[in-house]
Design goal:
Length: 319
């Protein structure tokens, strides 16, 4: 850990705007430890691609295990070991190994020093993987009563790079769903995708937000469409009748479901034909508009491709 450079936490604090969000053009600074020939990913993209497409690669966690052991007696050595690991390490690949190691050695490791190591990585770390290590370790502790630390984590969550990891800590807090909703609203890229995946619709407000906005991200709505269809009760809403504004949201969500290029969508919906019929029923009395026509055109294409003759015929009569 380089104590003379600006920490990532400090950088995010400085960059956030009056809405308590990061500007859309913001990205994390390039780490000094990174190799110059490494490809540059958008914040959160490397972890997102690993989780949704490639699977996390298997990496060696021995340096991090040594760092955890060293933290018991020498925090400087622990940070030195972490600094060596972050040059090529990715937390998404080793976090389960690290967690399992700490849990298995909980009788030998002093909790206070592991907690201190985690907090220092989170608040003082100048490398994103170092910060992620701290967040992963913090998930093992009860942080619910530490409001200053919680506020710091809320700020870190504004970066799509860290939302996934902060959400794992926030899941242990009181009113965790409200905390995760707050985080999800403040991010718009991969962070929103991860927060939506973790968000439980245990209030009507959460279910409503998932239906109206949760799927709408700057990466690709398809990544969250299935989650928002299920958690936001799309079919029940269609069958209950929608206002024009709600119908616009339903069109966007349904089009995202139909885009199964990156991930599964409509094909994983229980009774997908019933869902499409419910949408067509709802569309019958809606005014002609660009979003209505685009959704119907996508349904007609999908129905033809999947030999759903009745859906295709119904759709053509509405176009």
């Amino acid at each position: 850990m380089n104590s003379t450079s600006e920490s990532i936490y400090e950088n995010i604090c400085r960059a956030r705007n009056q809405r308590e969000e990061l500007p859309l053009e913001y990205s994390l600074p390039t780490e000094e430890a990174s190799s110059p020939d490494k490809p540059r990913f958008a914040d959160g993209a490397l972890d997102g691609i690993a989780l949704y497409h490639m699977g996390a690669p298997d990496q060696d966690a021995s340096l991090l295990k040594q760092a955890v052991d060293a933290a018991a007696t020498d925090l400087d050595q622990a940070h030195e070991l972490i600094g060596r690991w972050v040059t090529d390490g990715h937390m998404i690949s080793v976090m389960n190994k690290v967690l399992q190691y700490v849990i298995e050695r909980r009788q030998q490791l002093p909790p206070s020093e592991i907690y201190r190591l985690a907090a220092e990585c989170v608040l003082k770390g100048a490398h994103r993987e170092e910060v992620k290590l701290g967040l992963v370790l913090l998930a093992l502790f009860d942080t619910d009563q530490n409001e200053p630390l919680k506020n710091a984590l809320r700020i870190l969550a504004l970066s799509d790079e860290f939302t996934l990891y902060v959400v794992q800590v926030a899941a242990t807090w009181t009113k965790s769903s409200q905390e995760i909703l707050r985080i999800a609203k403040a991010v718009h890229g991969w962070g929103r995708i991860h927060a939506v995946a973790a968000l439980e619709p245990d209030t009507q407000d959460i279910a409503d937000w998932l239906f109206t906005e949760g799927w709408n991200n700057t990466i690709l709505p398809a990544y969250s469409a299935l989650e928002c269809c299920r958690k936001g009760n799309l079919r029940q809403r269609l069958e209950g009748g929608l206002t024009e504004k709600e119908y616009t949201c339903a069109c966007g969500l349904l089009m995202a479901l139909l885009n199964e290029g990156p991930v599964a969508g409509i094909s994983e919906v229980e009774d997908s034909v019933g869902l499409l019929n419910a949408f067509l029923d709802c569309s019958a009395d809606k005014a002609v508009s660009p979003h209505r026509q685009k959704a119907l055109q996508q349904i007609e294409t999908y129905a033809r491709d999947h030999e759903l003759a009745q859906i295709s015929e119904r759709t053509r009569t509405l176009l």
